[in-house]
Amino acid sequence: MADSSAPTRVMMAVNESSLKGYPHPSISCRSAFDWMLSKLVRSNTDGFHLLFLHVQVPDEDGFDDVDSIYASPTDFQSMKQRDKIRGIHLLEYFVNECHRLGIKCEAWTKQGDPKEVICHEVKRVQPDLLVVGSRGLGPFQRVFLGAVSEYCVKHAECPVITIKRKANETPQDPIDD
Amino acid sequence: MADSSAPTRVMMAVNESSLKGYPHPSISCRSAFDWMLSKLVRSNTDGFHLLFLHVQVPDEDGFDDVDSIYASPTDFQSMKQRDKIRGIHLLEYFVNECHRLGIKCEAWTKQGDPKEVICHEVKRVQPDLLVVGSRGLGPFQRVFLGAVSEYCVKHAECPVITIKRKANETPQDPIDD
């Protein structure tokens, strides 16, 4: 049976792995992506249009560079340029996967506080559904980590699906992803 | 393209309307059901298996009956019997809709605290996805109303989709549904 209505536009917030480094997607967002393909999109590849958003947190990305010396405005420019390239490589993974499966998609990066930027982009782009992966941390760990998924469920102006990382995928330090 | 894998099992928590009374589904859960059909199931009716759970709160159901006189154990039995029948009529709405659309489904009722029973049933039934409607109340209103969706997002052992009631569907008193 053909799907005559407009495709369902699914926006997905994706981020880098803190373990495997550039340009690997985090365990949470990769597992959320796989889940979405197998459980929602299924064989109905024409019925969905995927929108990938990567929000870069400038401070966090620069965290490993405590020994770097910034001596001129150009040094910051090149750092920003490098961050941008990392983000684009991350998105490349998802766009390639969609292309392989024949699913239409778009991807873009933004800078800022992920939870606020995600909700702002939902308002701007108006997807039918927002998908957010979650590490499934306890309340104590969440306080220090921003709880992006919790914020989005409350504030995003569209239905939100929260997909927790599976227990058997949790790394030794659950804060890693 | 045929979908060869097992259908995606979607569990949905449904409740009665506080406005229209028996046996109408609440605005939130009806809108969540319609959204799920048009945006996720789409034309892929063979790819999904829907599971409807109605959790009855005995105290709440008896609230209108402040003038009733309970004189014997039989009076309670008949109240419980009546509650059960109301729940069954509510489920009938969803089962009929699925039957009309050719989507396989199952429906059942349980008694207890909705948020705890829902998470318990997720553990027992192991659906791929839990759908919960939400009135989209603010933090002050939520304190007094249990925040079923918020609890399920944190505690249910499967991905959870929260679908907020639309602004144009909110009744005069937002606590109504």
From TrEMBL, chains A, B:
A GO molecular function held by the record: AMP binding
Boundaries of every UspA domain copy: 26-164
Annotated PANTHER family: ADENINE NUCLEOTIDE ALPHA HYDROLASES-LIKE SUPERFAMILY PROTEIN (PTHR47710:SF1)
Name the record gives this protein: UspA domain-containing protein
Taxonomic path: Eukaryota, Viridiplantae, Streptophyta, Embryophyta, Tracheophyta
Gene that this sequence comes from: LOC123401731
